[in-house]
Specification:
The protein is an alpha+beta fold. It has helices spanning about 1-10, 15-20, 30-35, 45-55, 75-90, 105-110, 115-120, 140-150, 195-210, 225-240, 250-255, 270-275, 285-300, 350, 365-380, 395-415, 425-435, 445-450, 475-485, and strands at about 95, 100-105, 125, 135, 160-170, 180-190, 215-220, 305-310, 320-330, 340-345, 360-365, 390-395, 420, 440-445, 455-460, 465-470. It binds one RNA strand of 75 nucleotides through α1, α2, β6, β10 and β11.
Length: about 475
RNA sequence: GUGGCCAUGGUAUAAUGGUUAUUACUUCGGUUUGUGGAACCGACAAUACGGGUUCAAUUCCCGUUGGCCACCCCA
């Protein structure tokens, strides 16, 4: 119907120039909305809203900066990612958890820490109608720790293992592989402090990528306890102050603001200075060092490729002891190449109000970045993903069409999935579709077949057709499926 | 938050200070209204937005918005 309207509109004004200059043009879509609501008393209001969209920011339709529609053409990527995540979580006994996208802002300020970029610069914080300060979650770990305390999960068998997959929000400048809304898959394990917990989590993250045919490497480090770190920072600042004049401008500032950040500066001069920088590993307490060694031993046993990276520190305050990041193997050193990361956070749950110390550890992976890698790999291998389907159902005429939905349901109940397009009436068009879908067979149901109680099965490669009794359709298709497999 | 590059139909592109903005793909319809993978015909569809210069702007200038890239940070 809408297309018809458009056509008449164009016929009435064949002069394209007039059409173009006609301001009405961009209002075509909104007009439809108007029509739908024409009987409403609020018609006027709608008009104003439409005007606002059109002229307010000079745009008719647009996305918020850094936001993105995930379109059906990416369906196959996200499907395998969801499957992979779910299967793995099941296999390692992580239970699904979903926390709200909106939380009190203070939750993240307390956990991630004031002074971190995530909290200070990147959070979507605003007041709701009640005047509460709320925010779009920038990550999930704090919410899960909150849920642990709130729901008394310490009464469950420990550790409590959960997984999540969902959107996170950070108001950062968009860039390749960086969006303001992005999706993370992550696992958390709370309640037990044991190196095997850390190792298992790293393994799950690694296997997740491996299941998707992405070879990754784990960069790992330990930042010890809070006390260890404080001691180390004193030492580090001392060293950096001595070499201050050789450092880049940024790093000079960082000495006071966030000295650990100097460690992963990319400036070549700074890198030279860092060659002899005191390493945090040497400042760990015996306990932390032993813990870390055990984690590494487990990784050795599992043959998970890792690299010690003494300069790895992470940007969230709650981490203690083990910290790690996953990178694509042989990936370029460029920006945004980390696929995910995580670490241990023994102080976090207590910080959020638990009476006991509840240790925890977890990871999260950036799924947009994973999708990017999958796309790259597809391009590199030249094997474009192509949907293949066994069967397509073509229907002709009103009677056949009515019957089709019933038949499709019967087939579905027998585990036979059949592509179709009921909006098409010409057989030709439907065969074209069957071809596009790369169907092996097309089932053809027309007027004649409905009357005879038969159906045609067409072999799309040879063009050979057989006519069978409709009642024998399911067994016949099952037979074909067996043959194909 | 800082800097660089960029903006033409759904996608990918061509061109231009001046009649109707090129082409391809996609989508839809058609070429004996029951037979696809080919060919042909047709239809839909664009100069991001706002302002300025000009007789005339899609083209030149400014601003805005958005995208990409780097820094920062992170997933």
């Amino acid at each position: 119907m809408p297309t018809k309207n458009k056509k008449t509109f164009n016929k009435k004004s064949p002069d394209k120039k007039i059409k173009k200059k006609n301001v009405e043009k961009k209002v075509v879509a909104p007009k439809k909305i108007e029509n739908r609501t024409e009987n409403h008393a609020e018609e006027k209001n709608n008009d104003e809203v439409v005007e606002g969209i059109k002229t307010g920011k000079g745009k008719v339709l647009s996305l918020l900066r850094g936001f993105k529609d995930i379109l059906p053409k990416e369906d196959n990527f996200w499907k395998v990612i969801r499957h992979s995540a779910e299967n793995l979580a099941d296999a390692y006994n992580y239970k699904w958890i979903e926390t709200p996208i909106l939380e009190e802002a203070s939750l993240f300020i307390r956990s991630i820490g004031k002074g971190t970029d995530v909290v200070d610069k990147e959070m979507y914080v605003f007041e709701d109608a009640d005047g509460d300060k709320i925010c779009l979650r920038p990550e999930s770990t704090a919410s899960i720790a909150r849920a642990y305390v709130l729901h008394g999960m310490h009464t469950m068998p420990q550790p409590v293992k959960v997984w999540y997959l969902g959107p996170m929000f950070r108001h950062d400048r968009p860039q390749a592989g960086r969006y303001r809304e992005f999706h993370q898959f992550g696992c958390e394990s709370l309640g037990v402090k044991d190196p095997v917990v850390d190792a298992e989590l790293i393994a799950v993250a690694y296997y997740f990528l491996k299941d998707l045919n992405i070879n990754s490497i784990v960069y790992i480090n330990s930042i010890g306890t809070v006390a260890d770190r404080q001691n180390y920072i004193v030492e580090l600042v001392g060293y950096l102050r001595a070499k201050r004049s050789y450092l880049c401008e940024e790093c000079k500032k960082r000495i006071n603001k966030n000295p650990l950040r100097v460690l992963d500066c990319k400036n070549p001069d700074c890198k030279t200075i860092l060659e002899e920088v005191p390493q945090i590993i040497d400042w760990l307490s015996d306990e932390s060092r032993n813990f870390f060694m055990k984690v590494l031993e487990y990784l050795d046993d599992l043959n998970i490729p890792y690299e010690l990276k003494p300069t790895l520190v992470r940007g969230l305050d709650y981490y203690t002891d083990t910290v790690f990041e996953l990178y694509k193997e042989n990936g370029e050193e460029g920006a945004q190449s980390a696929l995910g990361g995580g670490g241990r956070y023994d102080g976090l749950v207590a910080e959020l109000g638990s009476k006991e110390i509840v240790p925890g550890c977890g990871f999260s992976l950036g799924l947009e970045r994973v999708v990017n890698v999958l796309k790259e790999q597809q391009q590199a291998s030249g094997t474009e993903y192509q949907e293949t389907n066994k069967f397509f159902f073509a229907q002709l005429g009103e009677q056949a069409r009515r019957k089709t939905l019933k038949v499709l349901e019967e087939l579905r109940l027998n585990g036979i999935i059949v592509k179709h397009n009921l909006a098409k009436s010409a057989l030709k068009a439907q065969l074209e579709l069957a071809n596009k879908y790369k169907a092996d067979y097309t089932l053809i149901l027309g007027q004649k077949e409905v009357q005879d109680g038969t159906i045609i099965i067409r072999d799309m490669e040879s063009g050979i057709q057989e006519i069978i009794d409709q009642k024998k359709l399911v067994p016949a298709l099952k037979k074909k499926l067996e043959k194909m497999n």
